[in-house]
Amino acid sequence: MNKPFIHDDWLLDTDAARELYHGHAAAMPVLDYHCHLSPREIAEDRRWDNLAQLWLGGDHYKWRALRSNGVDERLVTGGASDWEKFEAFAASMPYFLRNPIYDWSHLELARYFGVYDLLSPKTAASIWENVNAQLAQVGASARGFMRKANVRLVCTTDDPADTLEHHAAIRASGFEIKVLPTWRPDKAWALHKTAAWNAWQDRLAATVEMDIRTYDDLLAALKKQHDFFASMGCRLSDYGPETVGPETATHGEARALFARARDGGTVDAAEASAFRNTVMLESMRMDAAADWAMQIHYGAMRDNNTRMLQAVGPDTGFDSMGDRPVARGLSRLLDRLDAEDALPRTLLYTLNPRDNEMLGAMLGNFQRGPVPGKMQLGAAWWFNDHLDGMTRHLEALSGLGLLSRFVGMLTDSRSFVSYPRHEYFRRILCNLLGRDIASGRLPDDRTWVGELVRDISCRNAARWFKFDGIAEV
Predict the structure, then answer these.
(1) Domains (ranges, CATH) in the chain?
(2) Where are the alpha helices (DSSP H) in 232-350?
(3) What is the DSSP string of 199-235?
(4) Confidence band, pLDDT 50/70/90 cuts, at residue 236
(5) How far, in Å, CA of 142 to CA of 37, rounded?
(6) What percent of the chain has pLDDT above 90?
(7) pLDDT computed for residue 446 by the predictor
(8) Distance between CA atoms of 272 and 245, rounded to whole angstroms?
(9) What value does the mean pLDDT of the chain take?
(10) By CB count within 10 A, which of 287, 330, 337, 472 is most buried?
C-alpha cells in the first residue's frame, strides 16, 4: 500500500532528521509571537459552518493561487456559494503542486480532521461532508483549534486606537492560552492619505479621551496607549514600512506637517517619508523604555492592481515584493537608537529574499550583551514561508549569525488552522540539520543538536520576548 502524502516522516530525508524531529521538535508547544488572528473571534470562540468558510474566507494566499489557475473572481471573493468556491479550490488543488498551498492544505486536513486523501475533484464531496460534520462537533472552534495545535501563546496585531476590549474579555474568560496584543502604529504616520489619517486621529482621540489637534497631542496619545498596551501584557511592537529611509523631520517640521494634514492639506512623498520616520523613531524609543522587543516588516509593495483594489478592496492578494533600497537608511536608524541606548531587542524581516544576507551582516553591527541574539533575522516572511524560502533564510542566518539563538517560526496568519506551519518549519529545520549530520558537516551528537532544535522551536522565543508565565520545556 502506498504511503499517504502526509506521513510521519514527511520532508525528513535522513535517520538523523527523523530523530531530531520526532524526538525533539514535534512535542514542543507553539509560541506564535506574530499573527493576525482576530481577538474578537478568540473572545467569542468563533465557529464555522463549513470548510469553505474556514479555509477560503479571507485567505489571500489561496485567492492568489486560484486566480493563477484561471478561476473566475466570482469563485474567489465573489458571490458564489460556499460549496461552489470549495469545489473550485478542490479542482485547482492538483495544479498547485510545489506551491506551499498544496503542502499546507493537506497538512491542515491531516492534523485537524484526520483526512489523508489528496484533495481533488474526485474527493471534494467526501472531504466536504467529512470535515463539515466534524466542524459541527464540540471543540471545532477558534479556541479548540488552538488547543489542538498545542498553542501556548499568541500575539495578535493591534492598532493603537484599539480599546483592546476583546483582549480584556479573553483574559476575563480564563482561557488558558495567553493572547497578548502587539503594538502596530503604522496608521499614526500615514498622513499622505489625508482623509483616512484624519479619521484615524479622531478614532485615537476617542479611545484616549483627549483632543488630538497638534503633533505633541499625537505623541502624548501614543504614549498613553503604549502604557495601556503594556498593562495588557504587550511585549512587542511591529512596524510595516515599505522601506526605511534616512530622512527625519525636526520637531518643528513634524509639528508643521501634522498641522497641515490635520487641516486637510496635502503632503508630498518626501515630507510623508520624513514624518513617518520621525514618528516611528519616537515609538521605538517608547519600546525601549518599556523593555519591549520590536519587529520591522519591510518591503511590501501594496495594492498594485488598481482595478481590483476598487473592486474588492485592500489585503485581497494584490501585494508583492518591493525592491527599494533599505540598507543605508536601516543602518542609520539602528545606529541612532543604539547611540541613545534606546535600541530594543529587534527582529528584521524582509519580504525580498535578496536582503537575507544584507540583514544577516547588518545585525552583527548592533549585537550587544548580555542578551544573546539581541538582533534577530526575522523568520522567512509571506512570499518566503515555503520550503525553499525557509531553507534560504536558515542558510543565511547560519552563515552570518547564530542559528542557535534564532527565535523561530510564526504563522503571520488570520487562520485558526494555520498552526501546522510551525510543524512545516520544524520539519525543514530538522531536515537541514539532519543532512548536515549525515554528511559530516555537523558532529553526530543528536542530544546536543536536539537541544538546539528545542530552543529554536520554542524556548528561545520564550526567553527573548520575556513572556511571563510560559514554562520552558
Answers:
(1) 47-135 (1.10.2020.10), 150-464 (3.20.20.140)
(2) 251-262, 269-289, 306-312, 327-339
(3) HHHHHHHHHHTS---SHHHHHHHHHHHHHHHHHTT--
(4) very high
(5) 10
(6) 97
(7) 96
(8) 11
(9) 96
(10) 287
- Residue where the block lists cell 494634514: 261
User: DSSP for 47-81?
Assistant: --SSHHHHHHSS-HHHHHHHHHTT--GGGTTSS--
pLDDT of residue 245 exceeding 90, the answer is no
Residue 286 CA: distances (Å) to CA of 33, 170, 237, 272, 318:
20, 26, 10, 21, 33
**Cβ burial, residue 176 (10 Å; 0-12/13-18/19+):** exposed
CA dist 318 and 350 (Å) reads 18
Find out whether 209 and 228 touch, Cβ atoms under 8 Å.
Answer: no
Are the C-beta atoms of 80 and 89 separated by less than 8 Å?
A: no
Residue whose C-alpha is closest to residue 207's, from 158, 154, 157: 158
pLDDT-derived band of residue 470, with 50, 70 and 90 as boundaries? confident
pLDDT for 58 equals: 87
- Determine the average pLDDT of the residues in 383-390: 96
Cis check for the bond before 420: say yes or no (omega within 30 of 0): no
Task: Identify residue 435 by its one-letter amino acid code.
Answer: R
Q: Phi and psi (nearest 5°) for 304?
A: -75, -30
Q: How many CB atoms lie within 10 A of CB 313?
A: 11
* Nearest CA-CA partner of 165 in 71, 43, 51: 43
The DSSP symbol for 4 reads P
With a cut of 80, say whether residue 412 has pLDDT above it.
Answer: yes
What is the average per-residue pLDDT within 338-362? 97
Which DSSP category does 18 fall into?
A: H
Largest alpha-carbon pair distance within the chain? Answer: 74
Q: Quick count: other Cβ atoms within 10 Å of Cβ 68?
A: 14
Residues β-bridged to residue 32 = 154
Beta 178-180 vs 236-239: how paired, if at all?
Answer: unpaired
**DSSP assignments along 119-136, one per residue:** PSTTTHHHHHHHHHHHHT
SS3 399: helix
Nearest Cα neighbor of 348 from 336, 364, 324, 372 is 364
Q: Is the model's pLDDT at 221 over the cut of 60?
A: yes
Euclidean distance between CA atoms 84 and 312, whole angstroms: 19
Sheet of 293-298: strand order equals 236-239, 293-298, 345-350, 375-377
DSSP annotation of 158 = B
Nearest to 24 by CA among 36, 42, 12: 12
Cell digits for 210? 483627549
pLDDT beyond 90 at 473: no
